[in-house]
Write a structure and sequence with these properties.
Number of helices: 5
Low-confidence stretches: none
CATH architecture of the domain at 45-158: 3-Layer(aba) Sandwich
CATH superfamily of the domain at 45-158: Vaccinia Virus protein VP39
CATH topology of the domain at 45-158: Rossmann fold
Largest sheet: 8 strands, mixed
Order of helices and strands: HEHEHEHEHEEEE
Structural class: alpha/beta
Helix content: 25-40%
Shape: globular
Number of strands: 8
Length: 176
């Protein structure tokens, strides 16, 4: 997986990514089979690529930077992944509107905005709370452990929060 020099991209660490997928597949190694993912603020695409390698049927990589979107394409190519993905080079809120308009209903949404962009967390989680997610959908926000993106976004309350090093993962699921 290639990083991109000169861009302020902080890829999800290998250790944190492994923790994420261990949590999502705990007790059920096939939990991701056939799932639909949206990787918001995708950066290098590492999380979405990992989802594909673990059986996701479709991953939508959303990245506003043209250079980073091109890097995702290169990383997918270097791994010989030729299908099961779409790269949307646009801002996350606009991409979500487009995906909603297409009737896309993800099982998993992973979001990793720049840690200092606290506003992006609230805006994105609020938008996702109004979206028609599948009943057992999970939204995961990666963030600095000293920042809490929020506990309740309408129908999308925060459940679990895991910290590892300076990073944290907050898990949100639809309120039942």
């Amino acid at each position: 997986m290639r990083p991109l020099a000169g861009l302020d991209i902080r890829p999800t660490s290998d250790r944190l990514r492994e923790t994420l997928f261990n949590v999502l597949t705990a007790g059920n190694p096939q939990a991701l089979e056939g799932s639909v993912w949206i990787d918001l603020f995708a950066g290098t695409g590492a999380v979405g690529i990992e989802a594909l390698s673990r059986g996701a049927a479709m991953v939508y990589f959303v990245e506003s930077s043209r250079r980073a979107a091109e890097l995702i394409k290169q990383n997918l190519g270097s791994l010989k992944i030729e299908g099961g993905f779409k790269i949307l080079q646009q801002d996350s809120l606009n991409a979500m509107k487009q995906l909603v308009g297409q009737g896309i209903r993800p099982n998993f949404v992973f979001m990793d905005p720049p840690y200092q962009d606290h506003k992006a967390y609230g805006q994105t989680l609020a938008a996702l709370s109004g979206w028609a997610l599948v009943a057992d959908a999970t939204v995961i926000a990666e963030h600095d452990k000293r920042f809490d993106p929020g506990e309740n976004f309408a129908r999308l309350p925060q459940g679990r929060k895991l910290e590892q090093g300076d990073a944290a993962l907050s898990f949100y699921s639809l309120a039942r």
